[in-house]
Here is the input.
Amino acid sequence: MSSRRINGFTLLELMVTVAIVAIVAALAFPSFQGTLRSNRVAAFNNEVIGVMNLARSEAIRNGRGGIVCGSSSGAACDGNWAGGLLAFADADEDGELSADEAALRFVAGNPQLAVDGPDEPIGFDGRGRRRSADEQSLTLRPSECDAGAEQQRTLSINPSGQVRSTREICA
Here is the structure.
């Protein structure tokens, strides 16, 4: 008979380890959910800024205009900012997507985000300035916002056409 001892874990040691891992995971899960929500908002925030800059640069390039509007289908503007955003070159400067105008980019909305936008599309003139005299901004937040958490973003488009993003506490 060998005097070597067999190394390994007993069933009791394994069960204690699994219980500790489960407790730590249960404590970390709510914090991780908040991080996921915040990252979703940040990613969509960057998409919106990219779409705005694309429409503005196209307006400057073609000298006529560019529009960003809420669109759930990507084929026409319907004012549904939560459904998605559509950027297009406004060659005839009428503020509407016509058959002869090219859609530049469509970004589908995320059902886990709430997006509130202006009543009218965000338009840029041939010099890259915002067409509307009214304040125009978009608000992005998770559908389930954590109370007191800075998970909301507000994107403001100033009269010169530049986009500014600010973090806010969920309302």
User: Anything to note?
Assistant: Residues 33 and 146 are 10 Å apart (CA to CA). The helical segments are 11-62. The chain has one helix and eight strands. The mean pLDDT is 89.
